């Protein structure tokens, strides 16, 4: 390996900056949860989802060549913070079932790590679908459950555990095209900006997320 390849500048390009912002938002979400500012923490998780989609979009636009896998690893490590650790800490902090909340939180984190590790291993296999539920959906579901006002400890624990297991399944999930992705980003922005006053946006987001989870699962079985 040449000395040039030891320099971080050799690897980093613009999409990686969006991945770092994604991770930063996830970390800030964890801090907000620890301070009891749950609504704002959920908004930060949803904002992280937006930046996660931007980094992929930018990478495709600039036709990034990532032969060493640097960008893929930065993206996955950022995702585990925002969509693995943050939702896990959210479940732990907002539910009072002793030990069960810890187990479900560990399940979220573990399945998230396994899901992203598998994604990196099979990344070079060109597929039109995702194998297993994409991890950002976890953050969308737990956040929209809270912001929609449909907050119930039993429901949250059950859905979080179920979603975790689907992440490491072999169920194939469709990749969202640019047009549909734009609509979802707009809905995410509306939920973040005015979702606390107009819960219809968070509720719609929750319905779409659950439909995305369940429809491929029903078709498979």
From TrEMBL:
InterPro entries referenced in this protein's UniProt entry, alphabetically: CDP-diaglyc--ser_O-PTrfase (IPR004533), CDP-OH_P_trans (IPR000462), CDP-OH_PTrfase_TM_dom (IPR043130)
Name of the gene: pssA
Localization per Swiss-Prot or TrEMBL: Membrane
Membrane-spanning intervals of the chain: 12-31, 99-117, 129-148, 154-171, 183-215
Organism of derivation: Methanothermobacter tenebrarum
GO CC terms of this entry: membrane
Source organism, top-level taxon: Archaea
Pfam family, one: CDP-OH_P_transf
Family in the record: Belongs to the CDP-alcohol phosphatidyltransferase class-I family.
GO MF, one annotated term: CDP-diacylglycerol-serine O-phosphatidyltransferase activity
Keywords attached to this entry: Lipid biosynthesis, Lipid metabolism, Membrane, Phospholipid biosynthesis, Phospholipid metabolism, Transferase, Transmembrane, Transmembrane helix
Membrane topology value: Multi-pass membrane protein
NCBIfam families: arch_ser_synth (NF038087), pssA (TIGR00473)
Protein's UniProt name: CDP-diacylglycerol--serine O-phosphatidyltransferase
Residue ranges the record marks as coiled coil: none
Major enzyme class: transferase
Its EC number(s): 2.7.8.8
GO biological-process terms attached to the record: phospholipid biosynthetic process
């Amino acid at each position: 390996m040449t000395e040039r390849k030891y320099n971080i500048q050799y690897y980093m390009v613009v999409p990686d900056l969006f991945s770092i912002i994604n991770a930063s938002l996830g970390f800030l979400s964890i801090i907000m949860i620890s301070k009891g500012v749950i609504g704002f923490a959920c908004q930060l998780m949803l904002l992280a989802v937006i930046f996660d989609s931007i980094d992929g979009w930018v990478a495709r636009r600039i036709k990034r060549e990532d032969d060493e896998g640097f960008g893929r690893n930065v993206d996955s490590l950022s995702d585990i913070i925002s969509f693995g650790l943050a939702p896990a800490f959210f479940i732990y902090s907002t539910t009072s079932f002793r030990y069960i909340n810890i187990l479900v939180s560990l399940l979220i984190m573990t399945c998230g790590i396994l899901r992203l590790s598998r994604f990196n291993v099979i990344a070079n296999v060109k597929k039109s679908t995702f194998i297993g539920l994409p991890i950002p959906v976890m953050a969308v579901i737990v956040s929209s459950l809270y912001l929609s006002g449909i907050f119930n400890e039993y429901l949250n624990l059950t859905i979080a555990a179920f979603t975790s297991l689907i992440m490491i399944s072999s169920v194939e999930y469709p990749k969202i095209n640019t047009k549909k992705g734009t609509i979802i980003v707009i809905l995410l922005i509306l939920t973040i900006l005015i979702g606390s006053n107009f819960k219809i946006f968070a509720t719609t987001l929750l319905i779409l997320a659950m439909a995305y989870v369940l429809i491929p699962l029903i078709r498979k079985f």
